Amino acid sequence: MLSELAKPVMAFVFAALAAQASAQEVAPADVKIADYAVSDPLTGSAGDAAEGAKTFANRGLGNCLACHAVSALETEQFHGNVGPALDGVADRWNAEELRAIVVDAKQIFSEETVMPAFYSLDYGITPRKDLVGKTILTAQQVEDVVAYLATLKE
Questions:
Q1: Prediction pTM value
Q2: Nearest to residue 55, comparing CAs of 125, 128, 132, 148?
Q3: I need a labelling partner for 37 at 20 to 30 A (CA). Which of 29, 30, 60, 146 fits?
Q4: For residues 42-59, b (16+ Cβ closer than 10 Å) or e, as one string?
């Protein structure tokens, strides 16, 4: 049990750690796409491929399977075919390029792509009012998805 004196110290330590973690996160408006890539990670923490696979398959988050087929996730239902199959995607794109595609595919492909910008506040003309000011994925979720995509080699 923490003493009454230790509680404020621990609260300060946790607040400092939280501030440090958020300071290492790149805000959506500050992400720089250059040469079809985002060279620097969006967070101070490496992406977790296992978490990325969960985000990728989660219909309430990435929902990537709605458009893309991935053999490694064959147990998941309803793989789409609107976008390309992503088997071997890590052989075609490096992590910096994959990060740019996930952040804002419209800046990589064209305004015509149906792939959403997962880490941008530029929604287009009819955003849902409850989502204004929010991104689809967090910076860490983007890094996790990129880590997962980097595992998809032929």
A1: 0.82
A2: 148
A3: 60
A4: bbeeebbbebbbbbbbee
